[in-house]
Amino acid sequence: MYLGIDIGTSSVKAVITDDAGTVVAQGNAPLSVDRPHDLWSEQCPDAWWQATRDAVGALPADARRSIRAIGLAGQMHGATVLGRDDRPLRAAILWNDGRSQAECAQLEAEAPGSRAITGNLAMPGFTAPKLLWLRAHEPQIFEHIHTVLLPKDYVRLCMTGDKSSDMADSAGTLWLDVGKRDWSDAMLSATGLGRIHMPALFEGNAVTGTLRVDIATAWGMEKVPVVAGGGDNAAGAVGVGVVAEGDAFLSLGTSGVIFVATDQFRPNPDQAVHAFCHCLPELWHQMSVHLSAASCIDWAASLTKQSVPDFFAEAEKEGAGSGSELFLPYLSGERTPHNDPHIRGAFLGLGNETDTGRLANAVLEGVAFAHADGLAALREAGTHVEALSVIGGGARSQYWGSILAAALGVKLQYRKGGEVGPALGAAKLAMIAVTGASVAEACAKPELIAEIEPDATLTERLAPKLEKFRRAYAALKLI
Predict the structure, then answer these.
(1) Which one from 6, 97, 153, 232 is the annotated catalytic residue?
(2) Which CATH class is domain 290-414+449-477?
């Protein structure tokens, strides 16, 4: 048995898999986000650790006793700054925090080769600009920083006492030379840091340490190996077998991602496309990233005082493309293709006839349209996508899948375990590390549950709304 732990934004998920990669048990513990000021998004690092203990504790004791190795996945980019005592100096600044836009320009000015080194535009979501913000606005914190860790790697520290990270997650810091798969001294220096502040780097299927005796005892396990793992998207790719050139997935978690595996480092920063290391050796990937996806559904369901299943039911009863309502899903700003932390969402085209079903469809369609923008940016970068495996909580709704397939013009594939993709991928990386199984053997695509082809009629109905959606961004930006 193998344990995969995913440190998400809204929850920590823990899954146990058997030798065939089948999920045999799941545990979950919720997390909340603090937004003390406009553009800010923070979490307490110790909340991740408590939620991890709760999620693992929810797993069956007999299954925990059989664990042979543990893999970690997690939300990317979060700046977790520690003092000499390895305790957090402040709340972690998260991936969807937008306060450091000015620092992005400063970073690119101080490191003129940054785009070539990192393969990415400097964006407020990434880790390095957050440290420049701390240096400028909280110097008393900055001067005491001893180590900077990503969220899942803080949990690793609590589990093992080791300061380690993987290539995929570290590529999202803007401190990594992504082509060379090593820390960049130039990028670190541009933020007033050095290698001494960074964790050791490992490929995602390498062992970084072992579970502390006290934690192993509390969890009813042996002192098992802990594997590097990956950022949530790269680990999710492993979970659904996206491990070869051209393989792709669509992630519908708190944020949304279209992820394409590549056998070379192929950056295209000018289109706000991300290019990172994969969490397996000699692989990279491209991503379009959207800061709000399933979080829009949670927000809108709460606003209309419904459960999420009821929200989907109202949308399906109304039918996609049936109304004039538009939703721009920029609740936390946007990355691909706009790189705009200040843009905010909006409903347009509301009338007396607007009801819950129409609002619900507008939200589902709006997120789909944002992903259509992202796929267009990937295609401009020369990436060809024929099919997308769907992962994340949004994978539970095939009605939404029909809207997404029509808006994107690609086939969607639903695979067993897709809803827990990153945790499943972390468990598979753990299995590879301790068994020596090949990537092809361990990361075969899971069983296909369903497939959704684009519906030409629905595509035609949505096309005028997609055109209006794209024009609406420019108008909204002027407000």
Answers:
(1) 232
(2) alpha beta
Strand partners, 261: 285
The segment(s) of the chain belonging to CATH 3.30.420.40 are 2-240, 290-414+449-477
Cα–Cα distance for residue pair 296/364, rounded to 1 Å: 8
Q: Which class in CATH covers the domain with range 2-240?
A: alpha beta
pLDDT of the chain, 479 residues: tens digit per residue: 999 999 999 999 999 999 988 999 999 999 999 999 999 999 999 999 999 999 999 999 999 999 999 999 999 999 999 999 999 999 999 999 999 999 999 999 999 999 999 999 999 999 999 999 999 999 999 999 999 999 999 999 999 999 999 999 999 999 999 999 999 999 999 999 999 999 999 999 999 999 999 999 999 999 999 999 999 999 999 999 999 998 999 998 888 999 999 999 988 888 788 999 999 999 999 999 898 998 999 999 999 999 999 999 999 999 998 889 999 999 989 988 988 888 999 999 999 999 999 999 999 999 999 999 999 999 887 888 889 999 888 888 899 999 999 999 999 999 887 778 899 999 999 999 999 999 988 998 888 999 999 999 999 999 999 999 999 999 888 87
Distance in angstroms (rounded) separating the CA atoms of residues 408 and 428: 30
Q: Indicate the burial class of 9 (C-beta count within 10 angstroms; 0-12, 13-18, 19 or more).
A: buried
Q: Is 85 a catalytic residue?
A: no
Q: Which three-class secondary structure state does DSSP give residue 13? A: strand
Please state, in angstroms and rounded to a whole number, the distance separating the CA atoms of residues 137 and 43: 19
